[in-house]
Design brief:
68 residues, alpha+beta, 2 helices
Length: 68
């Protein structure tokens, strides 16, 4: 089964980071849509922008476990 993670651009460092645990594609899409609708309702700025669903492959898997 192919897993996906959500990545976002950190507002402080301007680097793209993995911000979620590995999950199914449908769940990642649902979380991104929910986050985008919440951002429209809130006046505060979120810590991460430009959320994107990406396939979890060897590079991301390695980076994910190195950070923990």
């Amino acid at each position: 089964m192919i897993k996906y993670v959500i990545t976002g651009v950190n507002k402080l460092t301007q680097e793209r980071e993995i911000i979620s645990q590995p999950m199914a594609e449908w769940k990642a899409e649902m979380i991104i849509k929910r986050a985008q609708s919440r951002a429209l309702l809130k006046r505060g700025k979120p810590a991460y922008s430009r959320l994107k669903k990406e396939r979890l492959e060897g590079l991301y898997l390695k980076r994910f476990f190195e950070d923990n």
